[in-house]
Fold this sequence. Notes:
Elements: E1 4-12, E2 15-22, E3 30-39, H1 42-50, E4 52-53, E5 56-57, E6 62-63, E7 67-75, E8 87-90, E9 93-94, H2 100-103, E10 114-115, E11 128-132, E12 136-138, H3 145-149, H4 151-164, E13 172-175, H5 179-191, E14 196-200, H6 203-211, E15 216-219, H7 225-232, E16 238-243, H8 248-256, E17 258-265, H9 277-280, E18 287-290, H10 293-300, E19 311-314
Parallel strand pairs: 13-14, 13-16, 14-15, 16-17, 17-18, 18-19
Antiparallel strand pairs: 1-2, 1-6, 3-7, 3-11, 4-5, 7-8, 8-12, 9-10
Helix pairs in contact: 4-5
Amino acid sequence: MAEKIRAFVLHNANDLRMDRVEMPTLKPDQALVKVKAVGICGSDIHFYRDGRLGPFILRKPLILGHECAGEVVQVGSEVTSVKAGDRVAIEPGVPCRKCWYCRNGRYNKCAQEKFMATPPDDGSLVEYIAHPSDYLFKMPDSMSFQEGSLAEPLSVGIHAVRRSGLYPAASVAILGAGPIGLVTLEMVKAVGAGPVIMVDVVPSRLSLAKKMGATHVINAKEENVVEKIRALTGGEGVHFVFETAGASATVRQTVEVAREGVLRFLSAGRQNTKYRCPWLISSPRRSISSVFFGTAMSLKKPSPSWPTTGSMSSQ
Ligand SMILES: [Zn+2]
Ligand SMILES: [Zn+2]
């Protein structure tokens, strides 16, 4: 095997290069995986455009990419769960395994987690990665590598829907029909909830949402989102709202279109988004929480003006 392998390395904002990097060395509990497919996440685009995402700042060259699948080519001496030739989906975040969160099954909140393509940890847009074998998941033969690379974004939708307590026949609005909005739609359908109303400003996204099973789609550029959702729900608003766009407007709409259920924030959050938290939970009946690391991070350190009514958590 060649000693140097190819990787897409981000040196600065808007400065992405195909570089040669060292072949990773294998630890006893790791498998060497030849990367076969990598999705481009919104976070990769933030790092490429801005050189940062929320509190994570590019300070040295970084290999991008974390939504990935590949084929095991070699395993360390302690590895028994996978073998050479196995096709695997790769979980990109590896936690410390020791802290309170890790030991209580909430390892996505581990403060020491090493997450691919999040400074300073390199990602998977590289020919080979060495990865702990218990963070590799064998894929069925029927699943393509491209589909395997979608396991990580899909997990965001699964986690959000599980955390929400969504139930069959509940009405749902999903604000944002990008990849995370669409994987959330898949999970909402799997639960048997509906009607599902999806909102976006990009017509192609809305037509895909419709094709994937959204009951109604609303183009926020053409229609008043709040009025339309209220009209579609007998004036009551929906039971559950999943916010996946991270824009100030959708954050505001989240509250305005909700009945009294649970609000989900899935977006990583943009630099310029103003989350007006005291206003957000002005109704004590609402329970608000967020998932995914970007928003979770920001909620870990509430501002001094954090309100005390309602309930709030981040997972
Ligand atoms: Zn991602
Ligand atoms: Zn931990």
